[in-house]
Amino acid sequence: MNIGIIGATGKAGKLITQEALNRGHKVTAIVRNSSKVDTPEVSVVEKDIFDITAEDLAPYEVVVNAFGSFEGEPYVQAGHVLIPALQKIDTKMIVVGGAASLFVDEDKTTRLIDTPEFPDAYKPMAGGMAKLLTQLEQAEGITWTFLSPAAMFDPDGPKTGSYETGKDHLMMNKKGDSYISYPDYAIAVLDEIENPQHVNERFTIVGEAE
């Protein structure tokens, strides 16, 4: 498949890029700074996410949005740019989302971000990601998937190739931890690209740490 990856030089973006290459897909990095792309087999488009157009995304069957920010508003702004662009074309978007919008109770009244132990420092970023999810849920005429990681999203974790999926609730592994490594998250992204199971909805994953 022909896959575009926005934010391909970030921690998650790099691993998703490599996983896609390992599976034989054609990959284009859509990045703000092309000098940071150090993978020769990847094509590069240098463009800020807020300047992306429908014409930029049209060549790809799937675009992975791995854009990241410590502030919340950029996620909302990105949604205002990407959703109208996608409405004009047939490209699907998969979003590297956050865990904060996952529910922690069966009645779906309390999200992870609302719990006392959620760090204040991450609330702006988490709130922005949650708003982007709402934008996607309310949008018409696009095909999207939003993948929320577990609460502990470990950039240095192992690649086990194993994970379990859920929908809107925070999941725990056998040890009682909400954990997923970046490499296993990348596997889940490519599994969803190759075999879509969560069209126009959010899902989440949990894995085991070695």
Automatic annotation (TrEMBL):
GO molecular function, one term: oxidoreductase activity, acting on the CH-NH group of donors, NAD or NADP as acceptor
Domain of life from the UniProt record: Bacteria
Protein's name according to its UniProt entry: NAD(P)-binding domain-containing protein
Segments forming domain NAD(P)-binding: 7-196
